[in-house]
Design a protein that fits this description.
Distance between the termini: 35 Å
Helix content: 40-55%
Number of strands: 9
Shape: globular
Structural class: alpha/beta
């Protein structure tokens, strides 16, 4: 995974992210609904906070002693500080930062971010090891059907795991999972591409598009979607706690 490219693409799209990331907003709301009636978590860690969709929901619904919100894009700090000054923004690559952390967390939460991690399985297990005895790890990611149109047209996408694969990977924990399919419709293939660019999720390749590339993309998309162009999202929600 090219972390520099990811950082650059998301940094450029912070101002357009909120308007375009409608599915991610819905996912953030779903995550908070999966928590129990407990509303106090002494130490909270959020991974991939971005512009603060989830941060705002968590801070409005839960109370806490400490709340650390992490992102690989430093400019996210401005968004987080405007939500709640008690929340401490932590800039950097969470895969490195989590190794350095000696804190045990009562809640580790992440929305639509962990799919950008190099070693998904080991990273999630490492997060689980940072929980208190009654702690909860709660995250959303995307399943195998995510962006299936893009995979058909371009032949490449991120590595996504199916719900069954995720359940198998974390069978040693108390795990609750849910899955959903959300399909967005667009007027043209160019609108699909613009949506992807405006949410920053085109960070899998630094390739510059030519007119020929764009023409081939449009033709391929129209071939796959005989009617109105669509884009498939496949959210997966995972709640993990240690077995006692």
């Amino acid at each position: 995974m090219d972390k520099i490219l990811i950082q650059k693409r998301f940094s450029r799209r912070l101002k357009t992210y909120d308007e375009n990331a409608r599915i991610q907003k819905q996912m953030a709301e779903k995550l908070i609904s999966m928590l129990s009636e407990e509303n106090f978590y002494e130490n909270i860690l959020e991974i991939g906070c971005g512009t603060g969709f989830l941060t705002k929901i968590v801070s409005e619904n839960l109370s806490f002693k400490t709340y650390k919100a992490n992102d690989i894009v430093s400019d996210c700090s401005e968004y987080i500080s405007s939500i709640n000054p008690k929340i401490k923004f932590i800039y950097g690559d969470i895969e490195k930062l989590i190794d350095e952390s000696e804190t045990k967390f009562d809640l580790i939460i992440s929305n639509a971010a962990i799919q950008w991690i190099d070693d998904f399985e080991n990273f999630v297990k490492k997060l689980a090891s940072k929980l208190t005895s009654n702690g909860v790890l709660l995250f959303s990611t995307f399943g195998a059907e995510n962006f299936r149109e893009i995979l058909f047209v371009l032949g490449k996408t991120l590595k996504y795991y199916s719900l069954k694969e995720i359940e198998q990977k974390f069978a040693d924990y108390n795990t609750t999972t849910e899955e959903d399919i959300r399909i967005m419709s667009f007027k043209t293939p160019k609108d699909v591409l613009r949506h992807i660019q405006n949410t920053g999720v085109n960070a899998i390749s630094a390739e510059t598009w030519s007119k020929k590339n764009l023409s081939e993309f449009e033709a391929g998309y129209n071939n796959f979607c005989s009617g109105r162009p669509t884009l498939t999202y496949n959210p997966i929600y995972v709640k993990i706690s240690p077995k006692t």
